[in-house]
Amino acid sequence: MLTTELSEAEVSALRVNKERLAKDLHHSCQWGYGIRWGDGSTDTGMQRLALSEEDKSVRNWFIQTMKDLKCQITVDEMGNIFAVRPGKRTDVPATFIGSHLDTQPTGGRYDGILGVLSGVEALKRMDEMGLETEGGVGVVNWTNEEGARFPVSMISSGIWAECIPLSKAHGLKEVPTVASLPTAASAPETMKSALQKIDYLGSVPCSYKSTPMAAHFELHIEQGPHLVSAGQRVGVVTAVQAYRWYRLNVIGRDTHTGTTAFEHRADALYAFSRMMVRAREVAKSRGCLASVGIVEAKPGSVNTVPGTVSFSLDIRGPETELVAEVEKELRKDFDGIAAEEGAGIGKPCRVEWTLDFDSPAVKFHEDCIGCVQDSAYAVVADAPVADTKSLVRPIMSGAGHDSVFTSKRVPTSMIFVPCRDGLSHHPEEFCSADDCATGASVILQAVVRYDRKRFA
Amino acid sequence: MLTTELSEAEVSALRVNKERLAKDLHHSCQWGYGIRWGDGSTDTGMQRLALSEEDKSVRNWFIQTMKDLKCQITVDEMGNIFAVRPGKRTDVPATFIGSHLDTQPTGGRYDGILGVLSGVEALKRMDEMGLETEGGVGVVNWTNEEGARFPVSMISSGIWAECIPLSKAHGLKEVPTVASLPTAASAPETMKSALQKIDYLGSVPCSYKSTPMAAHFELHIEQGPHLVSAGQRVGVVTAVQAYRWYRLNVIGRDTHTGTTAFEHRADALYAFSRMMVRAREVAKSRGCLASVGIVEAKPGSVNTVPGTVSFSLDIRGPETELVAEVEKELRKDFDGIAAEEGAGIGKPCRVEWTLDFDSPAVKFHEDCIGCVQDSAYAVVADAPVADTKSLVRPIMSGAGHDSVFTSKRVPTSMIFVPCRDGLSHHPEEFCSADDCATGASVILQAVVRYDRKRFA
């Protein structure tokens, strides 16, 4: 059976195996399971930092699983794993389903993992149906999407898209998190050394030129409250909000907590606190978000006023320009706050900004969005409601994903499914087996529809 | 020559050797010198955490120096080192000069070090003069006064005074600072293991009963701006302000920075920031101080809203009751701040307090204060000003010192000398050789006067 020979009704009837998808997903979570939050066997979060031993184990499992499905495996010099199920034609690039197997240090079982596992399930389903595609279909696991251990998110898809230089990634050092603290605090590993350590430093160049794709589809939990609170089942992702990541240093003066009056202090941590409060005010006023995830105060002694504080700042908004406006206003305000702290002794704090990452707002590709939307309508068509199309909505992504970078080189779009309370980056992150299967069925159909569209 | 046979004029003429004191002090700073701030050979700070290898080296030097002065050495089970120069009478406890040789992770060359070195110099001066005392005179180096590595300050004098149980100290784990991070982050040492490691776990019980004292005098830099800004040379310390140290935890919820609207967050770090801003407001309104020296946000990832923050809080004030009032008000206010953050999702932050240390306000002993005051007047009497007594002032200590604990068991007082800009707990902490010598001459005379008073 060949995709281009199916009827529209046959395409719309395609579904994944819900039980097998859930079983495989939780099987893969044995490597790096995290904090327990319930009594069930799968009621834990995940702690699987990029290029950790746990990540190595799940990568090995992924490769073996894809080999069993007769896929060809490519590992590039960022450790990205591309598994391709060949199509009828071998002269064209494959259509990919992709996401990531790494997690936050206190993450859950669905962010990224569902995306890769939906690809595994889609290929298993095709295999058992004997469904042949015109072009190949691949599944890709992108390295360090989270940016938790190595502090640039989506770095490996960024290098593949040639938007980030390889040298930056290979030299990037791990940062301390609850999971990476032991090595990060004493002898931080670089991405290159970490890749070598777990045997995933491939020889193939990391580039869309060396490992081309026809398109990239990604299934992900929404990580927000819109679908779940509206009782909807599928989000057709049309765009990704803009965001920028900064590292800031506030430099004041170490001094004694017991003997230094407030007016004699240049307390970098006090200045930071005022900055964080202000950041929320400014972001809120423009419909944006501003967040601090990392803060380090030095020297770190109960009775010394911290003279140096460094912190991360993450600003996001629906438009690239809005993020730039928030940055502009905060630069002014932070300078003002710093200048006030220590002014009494003529040694005010000062603040330094470094832009670590800049991701402008992204619009996905119409062809891919169309395939996802048609598939979503088809998959929810048997739901017991009058207007089944109301279960599907167009949606913007608040988070960055590897699809942001693939979209710069190949047609791309994404599918969202609801998660409980809109919660993610948390051990209790949860997506029901039904919702996982709905999303995976949509991506299976989307890939088939895209293949038919390409070779119509 | 015996102290009790000296004339008042002979006592008033006693002076230390300024050059030798400066030389010894900087010699001792070769172990654990810290951040360089100037071109001079001694223009560095200190980084000599308690029970580090550098601390071991300076302890070994101290013991050898005191042995050369024919002192008897006792090391107790907290590693406190007592060096006693015997007096004429051997049936009475010695009068002690004491302070500490450990420093902050980014500390200076005078805090604590000047106190111990002034004792060394006082004994050298007595030795070369052939001056005999009625009771013995000792110098004590107290372990971990700073509380920087092991987070209870003055812990070893506290145990000596039987105000803190030995088990608490022996089990106390080091905390991460810029200097202790490597071990503290992976396998934190306890005080007991650290004492063993550097061979300073003595067998003598740490108690004022086993190692009695007649009195305790301590010379210290002011660590504040009063003396230096008034052009005064000696502070006669009459009291020490009250303070309390707490560790607080704010518990919110880890969640994604990109997809979680502010009203859906229980951001523990944002709550912390508001708390720190509020703490200064409340403390200021009551003439107290509130400071945060340590903050840790978990999980520590750029794109995860921190669900847990722990921080230290140091509240100080001139009266014990005032500190209690600030605490009471902050407990209420912090609960309010926590309750607001996360209220929108019915999962507000909460805050937990642990009192680590409580040091009520202390009044020093009249006899000791009198000896210090008489000595201070005598030492500054040759200054080229009309009213030399105006160079001396009574003063309250803002910082805690080992003298707080010794005062609970034996007559105690302290001497302050000015330091540049009132700065301490900072590499640029500085006290001129003249001021160091003035303070050391005062403590030399004070000990002699106290000896004469005891045996008059």
Q: Which oligomeric form is depicted? A: homodimer
Mean pLDDT of chain A, to the nearest integer, reads: 96
Number of DSSP helical runs of chain A: 14
CATH class of the largest domain in chain A: Alpha Beta
Helix content of chain A: 25-40%
Indicate the structural class of chain A: alpha+beta
Gyration radius of chain A, in Å: 23 Å
The outline of chain A comes out as elongated
Count of individual beta strands of chain A: 18
What does this molecule look like?
The structure is a homodimer. The first copy, chain A, is an alpha+beta fold and about 450 residues long. The first copy, chain A, folds into two domains: about 5-240 and about 360-455, Aminopeptidase, CATH 3.40.630; about 245-360, Alpha-Beta Plaits (2-Layer Sandwich). Helix content of chain A is about 35%, strand content about 20%. The first copy, chain A, contains 14 helices and 18 strands. Chain A has helices spanning about 10, 20-30, 55-70, 115-130, 155-160, 165-170, 180-185, 190-195, 225-230, 270-285, 320-340, 365-380, 400-405, 435-455, and strands spanning about 35, 45, 70-75, 80-85, 95-100, 135-140, 215-220, 235-240, 240-250, 255, 290, 295-300, 305, 310-315, 350-360, 360-365, 390-395, 410-415. In chain A, strands 3, 4, 5, 6, 7, 8, 16, 17 and 18 form a nine-stranded mixed beta sheet that branches. In chain A, strands 9, 11, 12, 14 and 15 form a five-stranded antiparallel beta sheet that branches. In chain A, helix 4 (about 115-130) crosses helix 14 (about 435-455). The longest helix of chain A has 22 residues, at about 435-455. Chain A is elongated and about 80 Å long. The first copy, chain A, starts with 7 loop residues before the first helix and ends with a helix. Chains A and B meet through helix 7, strand 10, helix 10, strand 12 and strand 13 of A and helix 7, strand 10, helix 10, strand 12 and strand 13 of B. Chains A, B: This is Peptidase M20 dimerisation domain-containing protein. Chains A, B: GO terms for molecular function: hydrolase activity, acting on carbon-nitrogen (but not peptide) bonds, in linear amidines. Chains A, B: Belongs to the peptidase M20A family.
